[in-house]
Amino acid sequence: MTDESNVIPATDPFALFDAWFAEARTSEPNDANAMALATATPDAAPSVRMVLLKGHDACGFVFYTNAHSRKGGEVLANPQAALLFHWKSLRRQIRIEGPLEEVSAQEADDYFHSRPFVSQVGSAASDQSRPLDNRATYLARVEEISEAFSSAGEVPRPPHWTGFRLSPQRMEFWIDRPNRLHERRQFTLSGDQWNSTLLYP
Ligand SMILES: Cc1cc2nc3c(=O)[nH]c(=O)nc-3n(C[C@H](O)[C@H](O)[C@H](O)COP(=O)(O)O)c2cc1C
After folding, report:
1. Residues within the annotated binding site for FMN?
2. What is the pLDDT of residues 182-197, one digit of tens each?
3. 177: CA distance to ligand 1 center in Å?
4. How many whole angstroms from 32 Cα to the centroid of ligand 1?
5. For the chain, does the N or the C end have fewer beta carbons within 10 angstroms?
6. Domains of the chain, earliest start first
7. CA of 128, closest atom in ligand 1
8. Does residue 21 have a pLDDT over 60?
């Protein structure tokens, strides 16, 4: 039989996230900060895609994107969203759910300009999620924006390129245990208090 004691502590879920994320950064081959982001239309049709976690603390989990994209349209119409991390190297999963809110213009500016010049150009040139007739069209826009701002060394942040912060109301930690007797612990926010319970796997 396996060791049946709990391995996921009933402590602060943010501290637990930090501990697991730190481990994932040393064990994942790349992009330990990659997470699936699920959004839904107001009539509840879901969609999901990967984004990168670019900041997190007790206020929430932040990613950056183009607000004119498909996800951007869904988020503006229906702020409820879910995040999922799956670290294969650790055999662990974290689910995080709650509403999204746009970050401040200052926060978005600071992050946009912390990125390499070529990344700023690529983002500014992309009408993310809109039809593109030909890849050459995109590359020509990249060239044009690159030339226009090369002497400045930075590109103005397009106002629709922004970040969103998910304020968690539910977080769930899943860990692989021997014989498929896996362990799950769910944290739910009630007022300003986080409660925790184990869940059947
Ligand atoms: C590992 C990985 C990380 C990604 N990170 C981001 C990101 O941080 N922001 C972003 O807008 N798109 C990111 N993408 C691209 C998205 O998955 C997606 O193709 C794009 O945002 C358009 O999604 P939408 O049409 O649902 O809006 C990433 C893709 C992968 C595979």
Report:
1. 49-54, 64-65, 70-71, 93, 128-129, 174, 184
2. 999 999 999 999 999 9
3. 31
4. 15
5. N
6. 13-110+162-199 (2.30.110.10)
7. 22
8. yes
